[in-house]
Amino acid sequence: MSTKRILTIQDVSCYGQCSLTVALPILSAMGIETAIIPSAILSTHTGGFTGYTFRDLTEDLPAISAHWKKEGIAFDAFYTGYIGSKKQLDYIKDIVSANAKKDSLFIVDPVMADNGKLYYGFDEEFAMEMARFVKGANVILPNLTEASFLLKEPYVGEDYDKEYIEKLVRRLSALSEGDVVLTGVSFSPNKLGVAAYSKKKDAVHYYFEKRVEGSFHGTGDVYASIFSGGLMRGLSLEEAADLAVDFTVQAIAETLSDRKEHWYGVKFEKAIPYLVKRLS
Ligand code: PXL
């Protein structure tokens, strides 16, 4: 069987356990050949550090893609995360058409916000560009905050019910014309999980785990990486969504005893043996 090949485009936060430093080891551990394009290079992520460096790599993207095209390099899937500029969104669309195979998957984690707020460096105009960018994606993985920015509607916090979520995922699916995995969904105080909407089935699948109080940086990237690898290994939307919840919970559990020192990310490395066991 030929190895599946994915291209993931997101930043390198040199320190801080997120984006490419999470996606690359996870996808590799899942047996997926993983190529990368760094969208930007930062000394750390922007969630809690101050004074970080930021080198935008937007103008490197077209040349990388053109070289690959000349070499005949194409991908079975594309997975995008934190994107460094609006212009990059156009370039990435070009890469997805220039370096695709016939049925390549396009998975978009619209990384830009959490807990009701945009991350530093993003604005509503970027969110609107992202809403256009997701069109044609097979799966998008917004959290509830990103969903509200994509749809240009107020963030409701945890003040929602099942009916709201089921409308929300269908409206998000209308933007992308594909499936949706909405993360950070909760209908009871001690449970947290995801809602996976299959467009083909027009059905919402839920999966919850026991909630751990507080928020953990980088878990969105851990989640989307496992999910993308799962799909590439032939799991269904629902199976991949569930596996990604289970792994993320394991990674959080590995971090809990050292949370004060290790505030900037989760110890996903320690959960990799669990992942390999689950997959074998
Ligand atoms: O985990 C998302 C993420 C990725 N990359 C950078 C970030 C963040 C979230 O804050 O700052 C640079």
Mean pLDDT: 97
Strand-and-helix sequence, N→C? Answer: EHEEHEHEEEHEHHEEEHHH
State the CATH superfamily name. Ribokinase
Which fold name is given in CATH as the topology?
A: UDP-N-acetylmuramoyl-L-alanine:D-glutamate ligase
Distance between the ends = 16 Å
General shape: globular
Question: What is the CATH domain class?
Answer: Alpha Beta
Tally the helices: 9
CATH architecture call: 3-Layer(aba) Sandwich
DSSP strand content: 25-35%
Rg from alpha-carbon coordinates: 18 Å
- In order across it, which strands form the biggest sheet? 3-2-1-4-5-8-9-10-11
The largest pleated sheet is described as:
9 strands, mixed
Q: Please mark out the parts with pLDDT under 50 across 5 or more consecutive residues, or reply none.
A: none
Q: Helix proportion of residues, in percent?
A: 25-40%
**Total domain count:** 1
Ions and ligands: 3-hydroxy-5-(hydroxymethyl)-2-methylisonicotinaldehyde
Question: Count the strands?
Answer: 11
Based on secondary structure, the structural category is: alpha/beta
Would you spell out the secondary-structure blueprint of this structure?
Blueprint: E1 5-15, H1 20-29, E2 33-44, E3 54-56, H2 61-71, E4 75-80, H3 86-98, E5 100-108, E6 113-114, E7 117-118, H4 124-133, E8 139-140, H5 144-150, H6 162-176, E9 179-188, E10 191-198, E11 203-210, H7 219-232, H8 237-255, H9 272-279
Parallel strand pairs: 1-2, 1-4, 4-5, 5-8, 8-9
Antiparallel strand pairs: 2-3, 6-7, 9-10, 10-11
Helix pairs in contact: 1-7, 2-3, 3-4, 7-8
The chain binds 3-hydroxy-5-(hydroxymethyl)-2-methylisonicotinaldehyde (PXL).
